[in-house]
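hi! just following up on the protien thing from before. the input was this:
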Amino acid sequence: MIDADKVPALNFKQIKPITSQDFFTPEIIKGKSSCAAGLCDWVTNIAKYYDVFVSVEPLKNSVRDAQNRLDEANTKKAEVDALVADLTAKLAILERDFAAAMAEKEEAEQKAARCARKMDLATRLVSALGSESERWANAIVELGELIQVIIGDVLMASAFVSYVGPFNKQFRDKIINDKFLTFFKNNKIPMSASINPLNILTDEATVATWNNQKLPSDKVSTENGAILTNSERYPLMIDPQLQGITWIREKEKDNDLQVTRLSNKKMIRTIEYAIESGQTVLLENLENNIDAVLQPVYGRAIIKKGKSKFIKMGDRDLSLHENFKLIMHTKLSNPHYPPEIQAECTLINFTVTEAGLEDQLLAVVVKKERPDLAEQKEKLITQQNDFKI
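and the predicted 3d structure came back as:
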């Protein structure tokens, strides 16, 4: 058997003139010899095979080379993909480390900023405290002296809150000077040389806050504010000019103030809800009589059951919230209440007298002519609020 791939190319070149003859076909030669026809057919076919082989082999070589280059490229691509995946993983780690480092940096910067602010505040505080050393030394001496007279001062303030509320300025001064001070001196009760109950009951910043809340700045109104805020009994304001109720509305507006009257059908329900939820109730425009159903409330008829406190109102025991406040108000200039009401409530006379009106007008003029004093008051209030915070 002859392998066609091993036949020399020269042989195919030499038989080309013969195979191109018209007579060199198996059909014609078969008429002469069948064996020669078979050989002719084989030669013709192998010549055609050689022609096809010669034209296809370069293409096969090209395909083989291209496949080799593709294999090499795929190998390199796989290496590059592996390298990219490795670099991507390393980049992710670096990005995570960078994010953590940046977060740590920002936290450190924030801590540094906070420390700087604290240091600045501490430096300012130390500087301020350094300048206050002399004042503190004097204050220690003053407090040492005040501790000797605190009993009399507190007793005077308590008596002031308990008894002088219903009177005007003239009678208040007379009660303090002719009654209280005489009693203290006769019984040798230690007290300050120039005792003033307002110095015990309040301070300038609190008074300035009240003035901003529309409480008149005269002395009687300030005394009324001190009595109202320091009394354990619920206050009953005698307020024909409505100055007291204006102050209460402004003062309690952020405490969910409930305003009602005896004529209001929902008055009882309003007070019951306020007792249990700790709201402030303003009972306005009272006449000379107060509904008896309110007596346990303004009389503070508190029932203790364990640690809880209750007020019996009608047929209900109401849980008394510690923030509940009852403020009563009348527009009558000279009301006549039964003794039990005067004993169970703190009557406070907000009636404006001629002297009180002069003080109020003077305060208005000072505020108009000396705005620097008003600004000083505002700073005092701000400092007081900052101190409380």
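The radius of gyration is 55 Å.
DSSP finds 14 helices and eight strands in the chain.
cheers
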